[in-house]
Amino acid sequence: MKAKRAILSILISTSIINFSKATNADTLTLHLHQPGHWIRTGFIGLSFEAPSLTSNNFNLSNKVYVNLLRNLGPGWFRFGGNSVEYTYWKRVPPGTQGRILSTIQPDNLTNVFRFARGIGWKVILGVNLGHYNPEMAADEAHYAVIHGGSVLKGIEIGNEPDLFNRNGLRPRSYNYAAYQKDFVNYVHAIRKRTPGAPIGGPAFAYKLPWFKSFTQNEAANTTLFTFHEYPTGKPQHPTPQVLLSRSVTDRMYNVTSTLIADAAPTHISVRMGEMNSAYDGGMPGTSDVYASALWLADALYTFADQGIVGVNLHGGFGVGGYTPIDDNRGVFTPAPEYYGALLFHIGAIGHTVPVTLNTINNVGAHATITTSGTLRVVIINKDELHSETVSIPLPSTYRAGNAIILDAPSLSSKNGISLAGSSVSKQGTWLPRTSTSVQVRDGVAKVTVRPITAMLITFHIDIHKSH
Questions:
Q1: CATH code, domain with 326
Q2: Number of domains present in the structure of the chain
Q3: Which residues contact 358 (CB under 8 A, 6 or more apart)?
Q4: How many C-beta atoms surround the C-beta of residue 214 within 10 A?
């Protein structure tokens, strides 16, 4: 480890470059001297509606589904969504009124934990807060802690309780103080039965002031802060261009920076426990096409750049619209946005490097670096008309790179999407086929990224120059 740190130190110390070499191109500045955020294992996750816990898809013999998950690395499952408030543990309590969507049995949890353990994933489990029953939640949490062990990363109390006063689960007068009382009562019931149970929350939908109050009041009761983000909402006339617009990127940045700032004094991590392009199943023609892959890759890097420790993409079995993995009666295929998650997984290794790219085009740029000095730069050209030529000044310890491309026929494509010249196979496997050498001349790499493509460039440190 000391040797790796020494290499990185040499790399950073040689990162002052003569920028005059970057001509006829926009310059991408890598701020290698500034510390970034370490990208945690399990950054990418999936979020399911709570009744999915009863699905027989969580079976290690389901090889295609297992392969699709393993492509994304060790991730996190999260079970919650609006349906968790109409899902009950073991049995429906007497006198329950209103919708009843599902009951979760002990065997369901055991099966999910077995599946997650088998593929190296973790679990966040939501419990019903909408129909107030702390003892039922405590019993479910107890079983989950005992049988989940290290696979269980959090018990999330309720789903979007900041909307309870709008969706009929609480009176219109329901405010943060009333919610906090409910939350604390649940925590006490859960930890009375199971001391040390990991508690996640608040799983708010949009009320940032409530989130700030929660971080100030409930840090002692919480091991992980969670929030939800759907940056486009559900516009009347959604388009791929809306999803890829700068305004959507700016919204994600502003929301995330607020969350990180509010949580910072507590030193508790923040995870986007539920996120996707648009709520309520996504936007047909936008959430389920290639544009979502470019959007998601940029969004995941944007969150990582600011210190978010992970993202759970909402969707799940039979939901359609925006789910990363489509399920058609047990036949699993990668949806377009799956490729954005795959690009992030293979490119976001190590810790983030702040970058600056001044361009008039709709282009996102991000970078990461490992302790051994491997540098990865991703350039996401969301512009439909213009290629983006970029000059990347580099330390003298690099002399060549290797690039792969995320590509598709059009923003509206549902098929023909490829990464490194390869699509995911029917067996759920993916192997890169094509790459391009990127030369570094006089300390500068210059690349051209075609419209609606993303380029991931990997630069390995020249060991001979690092000494």
A1: 3.20.20.80
A2: 2
A3: 26, 27
A4: 25
- 134 with 125: CB under 8 angstroms? no
Instruction: Give the bridge partners for 406, in sequence order.
Output: 419, 454
Q: Do 387 and 443 fall within a single domain?
A: yes
Q: How many CB atoms lie within 10 A of CB 18?
A: 10
Q: How many other β-carbons are positioned within 10 Å of the β-carbon of residue 84? A: 29
Q: Are residues 64 and 151 in the same domain?
A: yes
- What is the spatial distance between Cα 342 and Cα 349, in angstroms, rounded to a whole number? 12
- Contacting residues for 231 by C-beta, under 8 A, at least 6 apart: 248, 251, 252, 255, 277, 299
CA distance 334 to 325: 5
The overall pTM is greater than 0.85: yes
* Domain finish residue from 347, 374, 397: 347
Whether 287 and 406 map to the same domain: the answer is no
* Biggest distance spanned by C-alpha atoms of the chain: 76
Contact 277, 287 (CB under 8 A): yes
CB 375 within 8 A of CB 458: yes
Q: Are residues 372 and 314 part of one domain?
A: no
What local confidence, expressed as pLDDT, does residue 98 receive?
A: 83
For the ranges 21-25, 71-75, 400-404, the lowest mean pLDDT is seen at 21-25
Q: What is the pLDDT of residues 143-161, one digit of tens each?
A: 999 999 999 999 999 999 9
Distance CA 457, CA 378 (A): 6
Range of the domain at 392: 2-37+352-465
Q: Which of 288, 203, 198 is nearest to 238 (CA)?
A: 288
Please list, in sequence order, all residues whose beta carbon lies within 8 angstroms of the beta carbon of residue 392, skipping any fewer than 6 positions away: 27, 28, 30, 377, 444, 445, 446, 447, 457
Residue 358 CA neighbour count, 13 Å, CB half: 3
- State residue 6 phi and psi, 5-degree precision: -65, -40
Report the CATH number that the domain containing residue 356 is assigned in CATH.
2.60.40.1180
* Confidence category of residue 28, pLDDT binned at 50, 70, 90: very high
Enumerate residues 6+ apart whose C-beta is below 8 A from 337.
Answer: 277, 287, 292, 293, 295, 296, 313, 322, 324
